[in-house]
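Give me structure tokens for this 492-residue protein.
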Amino acid sequence: MDQGIPTDNLTNKQKDYATFLPAMSSFFARDLGKEKHEKDYILSSRVPPGFEHGVQGLNYTSSKDSYFYYKWHLYSAGHADLNMNKFSVRDDIVRNRDRNDNWILGDSGGFQIGKGVWEGDWKDPNCPKAKKKREQVLAFMDGNMDYGMILDIPAWVSRSPQGAAASKINSYQEAVDGTKINNDYFMKNRNGNCKFLNVLQGENFQQADDWYAQMKDYCDPKKYPDTHFNGWAMGGQNMCDVHLALKRLVALRFDGLLEKGVHDVMHFLGTSKLEWAVLLTDIQRAVRKYHNENFMITFDCASPFLASANGQIYTDIEIEDKKKWTYRMQPSADNKAYATDTRPFKDAVLDYKIFDTFRDSPVSARWQMKDITCYKPGDLNKMGNEGKTSWDSFSYTLQMAHNVWMHITAVQEANKAYDTGLNPKMLVEEKFDRVAFKDVVNAVFATSSRDEANAVIEEYSRFWMSIIGTRGATGKKTVNASTQFSNLFEEA
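Here you go.
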């Protein structure tokens, strides 16, 4: 194996694109933490010979001795050890990071409330269970994050039987009221180390508008000069419908809630489509040009980690003009017959015709086939059994790192291609007069009044109906998502 394989600095390739945040899995973070602090957690025989910096070279959040480096990330309090009074191996990658090296947005874990994992009466400010979790989440955010989302209660929780029973939230308005309790606590008790994003929820246009009306004051420096929240997180219908997202941005602009140095960050929850990666770049550039030069859009997804957990690996990136843009995932190599194969992973998978094509990352280029397919016939796993798979837990960790590099690279290459004039099919309307998304967005933010901006948005309502949402909704479903939102939150 070539020991001169270059590393890759993805931070330097980011340019002025909307910023993708890999939503790091607790499994991946735990493995790096345990390998660092527990002797022989990962046996030396399992470390690929091409890993000149050992297992810790997989820590892509660090610019020092990493096989690739990327600055921006998301980490969820919903999967963290929230006890800040004790050392946590699982969260070491976050708690003991060099803050000059990376930037992390904390997800509050509101999804855990919605799914009934964090029990308590969340509409009662004095409920002991809810109160303790509220305190722990704030302490975790203030102690570890650059930005964090407030602890929202999703609007859909009352329609989740398990979530409603565990949270005692039985209506949309109770979700609003419960979120206000959390907001008030965060605002009163935050220490200022972490900046907070006000989360906007709502299952349809009406709810989204109402939620904004009830929550917007929390970001108003005139009403809360010292404790106001510092930006916005787009959840519910706001995150998956470009029509509504543009309407919300216009409202924020003319309500004075999108101001330089005050509200510089907007996050879109759970967004994985490459088309949306460039769409959000267009919006970011337009807001920077016409209103707030510091404005930063971020978006996250956990796909690189979930793909590996499901036995899949990213093999290629497909970016063609007037086509759907995507990253290709396929079931990875898994055969005990490969357990002694010392060929580079790429050479082996192409030789065995497992994939037609395979794009190496700075991580996979350092593997041999046997580094993934490590179990031979008759080998026992850590449970003392002979399993069906040739993988051990470290096989998953290795492929997660590769998938993260591929996903970030896909987002950056999509933006680069977009800037050269290539367009994904859904961002250009050619049925009648040719309309490009970037031109319409510029027209929206070039206006000088709320009415003018909204008039431009409504003029192109047919165009918005053709743009597939982050969860795949189109047409009337995009305008009113109540009928399909149960599918949405299952994927969040």
